[in-house]
Amino acid sequence: MSPIIEIDRLSFRYPGAERDSLRNVCLTIEEGDFVAVIGGNGSGKTTLCKTLNGLVPHYWEGEFAGEVRVDGVDTYDSTVATLSSTVGYVYQDFQNQLVRPRVRDEVEFGPTNFGMADYAERATEAMQMLGISHLADRFVWQLSGGQAHLTALASVLAMRPRIIVVDEPVAEVDPAGAHALYERLTELNQIHGITVIVIEHHAEFIAQYAKSVVLMDDGAPVWHLPAPQAAARAAELASHGIPAPQIVAACEGLELAAAPRTVDEAAAVLRTAGARQRPSWTAEAVAGSAGQATREGQPTTEGEERRPVAVASAVSHGYRSVAGDLMPVLTDVDLTIRAGDRVALVGGNGAGKSTLMRLLCGLQVPRGGSVTLDGIDTKKSSATKLAEHAAYLFQRPEQMFLKDSIRADVRLFPAGRKRADADALVDRVLDRVRLSDFADRDGRTLSGGQQRRATLAIGLAMTPSLLLADEPTASLDVASRDSVISMLDELSGAIAAAVVATHDMHLVAEWATRVIVLGGGGVLADVTPSELFASDALLEGAHVVPPQITALGRALGIDPAPLSVAQWREAVALADASETVEVTA
Amino acid sequence: MSRKTRDVLSVEWVKLELIRTAYATRGGLFAKMDPRMVISWYLILAVVPWLTHDLVTIIALFALTAVSAALARVGPLVLGLFLIGFVTDFGYAFGAAWVFGGDHETALALVEITLKLATVSLASIAAFVSLDPEELSTGLLAWKAPELLAFGVSYGYRMMPILFEEFGTVFTGLRLRSPQGKKGFLGLRALWRWGTWAVQAFYPIFLNTAKSVRTTVESLETRGFTAAQGRDLRIAQLSIGALDVAVVAVTAVAVVGAFELDALFTIA
């Protein structure tokens, strides 16, 4: 194999910046490699990738030193347009990359602009390679996140590039969609020999798909290693904000020196090592285990009737399509959310998660049946009055930033409803989500995790009985995601019940007490997280992939399967160790 | 008080109507035609009403465009807005004639101009409801319009439903979280509040859009938009067929017929 990218002593500084974003980068990437570029926020990952298609320095004109050769061409002497036929770039916010109304136009756009007479064949070929030919005549705003992502990928693929860069592919699609995308990228890499470069935060994807890994820190690569060697440096990765995959942590917990890439590999390793269930790990023990410790205070027995916060009875709802038909989303749904519930709504795209939440908080009223919130029929009250009982957090945080500072946004509701202690409440809430230091900044300038916490603060200041959040952990890196989950955990005292719609099974495993699976217009199941992860039929119906640690537990026949690494440590021991436990017990 | 989900005259309905209108999803006669011929057809009917003062001819031309609008399957939102304008214009014409002491001739002159305007409006409604933005922009390209204008048309339409949706979300946020108050006399205070929120909603929308457009611009660069070598390929997608010629020919005959009517009946 020959190198397709050669970077020699590259430094770059954005105009007006105080320090270099890239510092003396030397890096060679072989043709046909599948590279994961990792590193913390601001380590220069995206800037590095933008040097490959000439956006740096031709579009972003800063101080540029050194040399970048792509397929033998010096990017400094070339143009973005020319380089783009070699390097395809898929953005993190890929929705904004789509500029044409229909999928086919979108995919044909690049080749047509370059005057390629075979643009139609190229587009057809690209759509076939990604299995989206059936979407060709759809409008781009009708696509689900995963479909839109594949469309963005197809549109760069139609240029028949030799290198494809994908910026944070997992950020805005659900786990099943992310795996599908990675499978497609692997095909492009293996069958068509395209060099793939991904910017990625999630260690499990890196371990499973990448051939080599580049770790960036402070504008320069720390190392470029084959994936197995990179995965073995778990501690170093963790210090750069990339925690080890759960399966690696599981091996570590048993003091096994192994870096398995997939759940199956990990199961094989652990079987050989003689890992088995501790006798002390029983269904009763789970209730008091580490991961569940914070949930003890809540009554779980069915005998005690807890106060119903929101009740949906025989609810049916649907939307009009562009063609004018009524598309039913929910049919005859009965549901009671009680005080103390932490509900995760799961289900495939279009299963009605957002619709159900909008109905529960009274933003919309159902076409059939009724919703009662805090004892009030939502049809008999207005959305503005119901806002005192339920707070709904939109999926995109910036849509909730209506004022020019976080403080003003949090204050808007309590001050507007003339609450005497509004200012004290705002201070308390901001303190609680640890954003007091950022209170005077516009929400849009914060990092992804801070933005989510700011929306939580806005919701809390409304002092609702019911808090509803749409995908509160979507497009966050692992560390920010964990901080949002623990934040949700701490807030349980301030609100009576919480409902989140999510694709994030870590959130389900570590936070929820109740999972409602939506599908086929109704509730497929109303279970605990353990029950969800124990049933293949449910997992498939919900279009979700269990966390690695849960899948591993099931592969090893551990019942109930652990939901977190902490539970894993309590549940599993190596054969000889567990015997010792038995003896001492 | 009881709320229910409404299928018409709701925000959602307006959004759907805009999409249906913009992308000609209802089909219709002109949607099947070559965009250049649709624009030519429109230009004929936009000019001829101004070449006559004969009321019979004008009424005939109005009838012609009314039939065209029906064949173009114009949606209720656009048609409703047109009718409101048309009826109030007529009312104004008679009102003005009466107040300023005019006689039936003044009124007739005002009716004439109102009818001319209505004819041109109906023709433009029929034409532009039938042109989807891709066709319109390719048609403009074929007539040597700058690439940027042609792209702007298509991109503007693409962004419209997204911006409308964004506006709806931000406005809802403002409505739920802002201070509430009394409705006031005839709901005037409430109306004033809604107006204020509608204006305030632009602050977050501008900032959010500015942020997302950065990606769009970069991506346009990488996908050769500024290389602009695709003009001929796009134009080659157009073709003028029998239907195009027939529709324009029938219209031309009808227009000539309308002018001939003037010889048969003479009023005023």
Brief characterization of the structure:
The complex is a heterodimer of chains A (585) and B (268). By secondary structure, chain A is α/β, with parallel strands linked by helices.
Describe the structure.
The complex is a heterodimer of chains A (585) and B (268). With 585 residues, chain A is α/β, with parallel strands linked by helices. Chain A has two domains: 3-235, P-loop containing nucleotide triphosphate hydrolases (Rossmann fold); 302-547, Rossmann fold. Chain A is 37% helix and 23% strand. Chain A has 25 helices and 22 strands. The longest helix of chain A has 18 residues, at 175-192. Mean pLDDT of chain A is 88; it is low at 289-301 and 578-585. Chain B has two domains: 13-131 and 239-268, no CATH class; 134-237, no CATH class. The mean pLDDT of chain B is 87. Chain B has helices at residues 11-22, 35-47, 55-71, 76-99, 104-130, 133-142, 147-177, 188-200, 202-222, 231-235, 242-264. The chains are: A alpha/beta (585), B mainly alpha (268). Chains A and B meet through helix 3, helix 4, strand 12 and helix 16 of A and helix 1, helix 7, helix 9 and helix 10 of B.
- Total domain count of chain A: 2
- Average pLDDT metric of chain B: 87
Number of helices of chain A: 25
- Beta-strand content bin of chain B: under 5%
Shape of chain B: flat
SSE blueprint and pairings:
The complex is a heterodimer of chains A (585) and B (268).
Chain A lengths: L2 E11 L8 E9 L3 E5 L6 H8 L2 H5 L3 E8 L2 E2 L5 H5 L2 E4 L12 H11 L5 H11 L15 H13 L5 E5 L7 H18 L2 E5 L3 H7 L2 E6 L2 E7 H6 L1 H6 L6 H8 L9 H11 L1 E3 L5 H5 L20 E13 L5 E13 L3 E5 L6 H8 L7 E6 L2 E2 L5 H4 L3 E4 L12 H11 L5 H11 L15 H14 L4 E5 L7 H13 L6 E5 L3 H7 L2 E6 L2 E6 L1 H6 L1 H6 L6 H8 L9 H7 E3 H10 L1
Parallel strand pairs in A: 3-8, 3-9, 6-7, 7-8, 14-19, 14-20, 17-18, 18-19
Antiparallel strand pairs in A: 1-2, 1-4, 4-5, 9-10, 11-22, 12-13, 12-15, 15-16, 20-21
Chain B lengths: L10 H12 L12 H13 L7 H17 L4 H24 L4 H27 L2 H10 L4 H31 L10 H13 L1 H21 L8 H5 L6 H23 L4
Helix pairs in contact in B: 1-7, 2-5, 2-11, 3-5, 3-11, 4-5, 6-7, 7-8
